[in-house]
Prior knowledge:
By secondary structure, the protein is α+β, with helices and mostly antiparallel strands.
Amino acid sequence: MTVIHQSRAQRDGLLGGLAAVLAVAFGLGAANAQTTGGRIAASLVGGAIVLIMLAGWIRLIVRPSRLEVSAEAITLVGSNGERATLSRESGSELTVITIGGGRVNNRGLAIAGTSTVISLATFFSLNQVKRQCLAYGWTFSGAG
């Protein structure tokens, strides 16, 4: 079995960049506020938002999800220990699908013809997932 970890570059790049942009935006808002109350409000609101985002980022680092790939199954183990499994018994042809609708769409992995989907939205590299699945004899349909 091979364990695929979340992409640090995707996770830390996105969240670090977002934290920096928010900190700068709220810092500029506080510095350019016309009143003392405005500076205090911008500082408190901005600081609270950045701290909440940093706490979520730390949680993602401390309790990451992982994908376990073997010849028999592909299992997503979530940060809270929940498991979602695609079993070889249901087939060996995988499909990369789009999950969600509207403005935010994520990728998911499913066995062709089944309803079980493993979400790859939590910072997994699709290329690495495909490479490891192919190494264990899984195949991909042309749709992904």
